[in-house]
Amino acid sequence: MQKAAFKFIGEHDFRNFCKMDAANVSNYKRYITDFNISACDQRSNHDELWSMNIRGSAFLWHQVRCMAAVLFFVGQGLESPCVVDSLLDITKTPRKPQYTMAPELPLILRSCLFDGVSFMCSSDASQALIEHLKDEHHQYMLQAAIFDEALTCLSIPEPNPLEHPKKKRKHIPLLSREAEPSYEERRAR
């Protein structure tokens, strides 16, 4: 995933990594300055929490969610890291393959920096935000404990040897999928 993430660094046309808004956007070039993937200290059962830290000059609508979705395919071994090169090459891939964006839930916009602009936050507003986040954290931890307790009350059914296991949907490679209309096709409409 990190190898694929490095391919995003630099100026590229990201039209295959966003929700295209051809009526309002004509320039899909954006500049990514840094993209790192690193492990966090948190675990849940066998799942590890990882962090994707992305820095850039500007982002398109749902760009980060689309980049993350493609990286998840790479991480699962369903796509090669070079799929990023193909999707960034607009002459090779002028139409975005259809794929589902990564969910918004784990994404956090940590900061925005603008030349010549500094944001200030009053101590009251900062304290109110801290209290709000602590309260939200407490509520989610309580909910998690309730679900954990409910799971311990359930008996796990024995597998029936006569039942066929559900088949997983076969992955269709991104570059073989049906594609959305290109920017030019959208503008012509």
From TrEMBL:
Isomerase keyword on record: yes
Membrane found in the keyword field: no
GO (cellular component) term, any one: cytoplasm
Domain Pseudouridine synthase I TruA alpha/beta: 4-115
InterPro entries to which the protein is assigned, alphabetical: PsdUridine_synth_cat_dom_sf, PsdUridine_synth_TruA, PsdUridine_synth_TruA_a/b_dom, PsdUridine_synth_TruA_C
EC number(s) on file: 5.4.99.12
Catalysis performed (reactions): uridine(38/39/40) in tRNA = pseudouridine(38/39/40) in tRNA
Gene3D superfamilies, per the entry: Pseudouridine synthase I, catalytic domain, C-terminal subdomain (3.30.70.660)
GO process terms (BP): mRNA pseudouridine synthesis; tRNA pseudouridine synthesis
Annotated stretches, region: Disordered: 162-189
Keywords recorded for this protein, A-Z: Isomerase, tRNA processing
UniProt xrefs under SUPFAM superfamilies: Pseudouridine synthase
Biased composition range(s): Basic and acidic residues: 177-189
MF (Gene Ontology): RNA binding; tRNA pseudouridine(38-40) synthase activity
Record family assignment: Belongs to the tRNA pseudouridine synthase TruA family.
PANTHER family xrefs: PSEUDOURIDYLATE SYNTHASE, TRNA PSEUDOURIDINE(38_39) SYNTHASE
Name listed for the protein in its UniProt record: tRNA pseudouridine synthase
Lineage, uppermost ranks: Eukaryota, Viridiplantae, Streptophyta, Embryophyta, Tracheophyta
